[in-house]
Amino acid sequence: MLQQDQLKTVASLRGIRHRYPGGEALQFTDLDVAVGQHTLILGDSGSGKTTLLHILSGLLKPVSGSVQIGGQELYGLSPRKLDTYRGQHIGLIFQEAHLVKSLTVKENLLIAQGFAGAEVDNNRIQEVLAMLELGHKAHSYPSKLSRGQMQRAAIARAVVNHPAILVADEPTASLDDRNTERVLDLLLAQATEHGATLIIATHDKRVKKRFEHTYQVGGAA
Amino acid sequence: MNILQIAWKNMRQSPATSILGILLTAFGTGILCLLILTSHQLEEQLDSNSRGIDLVVGAKGSPIQLILSSIYHMDNPTGNISLAEAQQLAANPMVKLAVPLSLGDNYRGHRIVGTDSTFLALYNLKLAEGRLWHDDFEAVIGAEVARKHDLDIGDKIYGSHGLSSDGHAHDEHPYTITGILAPGHSIVDQLVISNLASVWRMHGDDGDNHSAGDEHGHTHDSAGVEEHEHHHGEDHNHDHGDEPQLVKSIMGHIGSGEREITSMLIQYRNPAAIGMFPRLVNQHSSMQAASPALESARLFSLLGIGIDSLQVLAYVIMFMAALSVFISLYNALKSRKYDLAVMRTLGASQAKLFGIVIAEGILLTFVGAIVGVVIGHTALYLIGASTDGSAKFVQAFALLPQEGGLVLIGVAIGFVAALIPAVKAYRTPISHTLAGN
Questions:
Q1: Which residues pair with B194 in a beta bridge?
Q2: Residue A152 near residue A134, CB atoms below 8 Å
Q3: Which CATH number goes with the domain that contains A178?
Q4: Who among A57, A99, A102 is closest to B12 (CB)?
Q5: Pairing mode of beta strands B156-161, A25-27
Q6: How far is the alpha carbon of B357 from chain A, nearest alpha carbon, in Å?
Q7: Closest Cα in chain B, distance from residue A209 (Å)
Q8: How many CB atoms lie within 10 A of CB B373?
């Protein structure tokens, strides 16, 4: 049973082609990510990693090709359904922790539940915040948080809805070695804890050694 | 968290611009609210004071002046009319009720009105205590007069000549108060009411002529009315049987050939008189007829110029409010586009972002409009408290249906001002914004 689960595909890309408004076209090789198979997307700056991540997360519709997350063809959904699906099944983490500035940490998690169409679950929020050592900061505004706390809050928000995949875009780009290790530990721990498969886009060599599965965008690694 | 809560939080994010938008909306709404309230209350006052009065007959002159002096007791009378002539009109079958008025004196700014008991019938007045006047120089006072000057039954008051309190005093003839009227919330509360003879005698004895023609002929003739008619030699068809009993009795009592009154308030027997009776007065007598309804409307249209310009000012402020809300929302979009994109990644639909921005605009102007209505009522209360007298705004805190309209206008302004920013929020390109280019 466990074996079967391991082999189940959580994310797959097939024949993705994208064209930038400028006219430059990109073609991505196919990708399959099995459940629990944390994957790195590697590539130099400007190689299209972020573009691929956005395509994968349902934020950017490719010119052609198919994106399946948890068995659902993303771009076959209506825009509205796609938004909800994204909220429910995809957790996004950015290089900068983009918390909504006008809302407290707890409220940032509340809107994550609300937008995804989930019931408000205060226990879940408390649980996630406690796990990320943010319980005491629940009612703080982002401007009152340290950088590390902000990043943890952003991770809390990404995992609060039990996403199938946790997508991180350059989460360590501006961190020193020690903090890079800590963030990676945190991401891996949270992904495992909440049953999410981690997909990280990075050009950071320090990250590479922690992951077995990699996917190369653009030229050779 | 729902859209409103998120919008509310956003609003608090930039308190200065939010307060500016709220204040501008509040001032605009406040002015409009005050205008609505004052014109409503003014109209109500005018209406309640002229209720039941279809026509005022008085000396020729400005019809507005006639209305103001005889109904609202504000302006000077246009002059005097012959009582006999007035009585002929009163006897017309179209007339249901005819109330003679004789003005000329005041008690500390409260007009002393010489009339007869039909006055009480016309205004539907009831005595709170005491009795009506029986003799000359007995008077019944309005509730406000009694309250303000702490007067009681049996007290004597001295009138002074003229319609404002600084006139020459009639020291010789005090009025004795025999009754106090129950409050009627009309101008009558501010009046001192006596019989016609008191006013005539006051001025007859003083030598203060009502007009040059009054020779103070005190020919005590019991058949005065009839004789009076012959004096004028006018060929009105006059049916003595229809003569109001009271006028007759006064005439019988005083008995004078050239009695004059200031004006006569008339209530028609049926609506058919509206078209015919004023023409009859204006064309076939030396008097003029003025309709309170028409003249109040005319007065209102004259006041309307002032009201209109205030209204324009209010609309300009409202427009500025809309502009300020628009600018603050539009500017906020720049710093918030990341927040909006992040919300999209969390599952918010485009419609939701549109709704959040619209909700914020509406919230600003809604709060502003509510504050404005409060300002309007408070201002009205303060105005009412600082001015007493006939223009009393009793119900400063009564809400009018139009105020709901004001709040709706506020909400509409918020919606319109937020529309373009909301469309921009709707169109936020998530991928582009998140990628930071």
A1: B114, B139
A2: yes
A3: 3.40.50.300
A4: A102
A5: unpaired
A6: 14
A7: 26
A8: 25
Which pLDDT tens digits describe chain B residue by residue (437 residues)? Answer: 788 899 998 888 888 889 998 999 999 999 989 888 888 877 777 777 888 889 999 999 899 899 988 988 888 888 889 988 888 888 889 999 999 999 888 888 888 999 988 898 888 888 888 888 888 889 999 988 888 889 899 999 888 887 666 667 777 788 999 999 998 878 888 899 999 888 888 876 444 444 333 333 333 333 333 333 343 433 444 444 444 444 444 444 444 457 889 999 999 988 888 888 898 888 888 899 999 888 888 887 887 788 888 889 888 988 988 999 999 889 888 888 888 899 999 999 999 999 999 999 999 999 999 999 999 999 888 887 776 554 454 567 778 888 899 999 999 999 999 999 999 999 988 888 887 75
Q: What is the pTM of this model?
A: 0.73
Chain A contact for B2 (CB, 8 A cutoff): yes
Instruction: Please tell me the total count of domains within chain A.
Output: 1
Range of the domain at A167: 37-47+78-216
Distance from CA of A4 to the nearest CA of B (A): 30
Q: Is residue A175 part of a domain?
A: yes
- Whether residue A54 lies inside any domain: the answer is no
Q: Among partner residues A85, A102, A112, which is closest to B346 by beta-carbon distance?
A: A112
Q: Is residue A145 part of a domain?
A: yes
d(CA A97, CA B398): 52
A208's tokens: 């590479």
Q: Smallest CA–CA separation between B347 and chain A, in Å? A: 4
Nearest to B115 by CA among B105, B103, B123: B103
Find out whether A55 and A86 touch, Cβ atoms under 8 Å: no
Chain A residues within 8 Å of chain B (Cβ atoms): 50-51, 54, 57, 59-60, 79-80, 83-88, 92, 94, 98-103, 107, 110-112, 114-117, 157, 169
Q: Return the sign of the alpha-carbon dihedral for residues A119, A120, A123, A125.
A: positive
Contact residues on chain B for A157, CB-CB shorter than 8 A: 346
Is B338 at the interface with chain A, CB within 8 A?
Answer: yes
Give the residue on A whose Cα is nearest the Cα of B335: A101
Residue to substitute from A49, A51, A59, interface B, most B β-carbons within 10 A: A59
Q: Locate A220 and state its tokens.
A: 């050779």
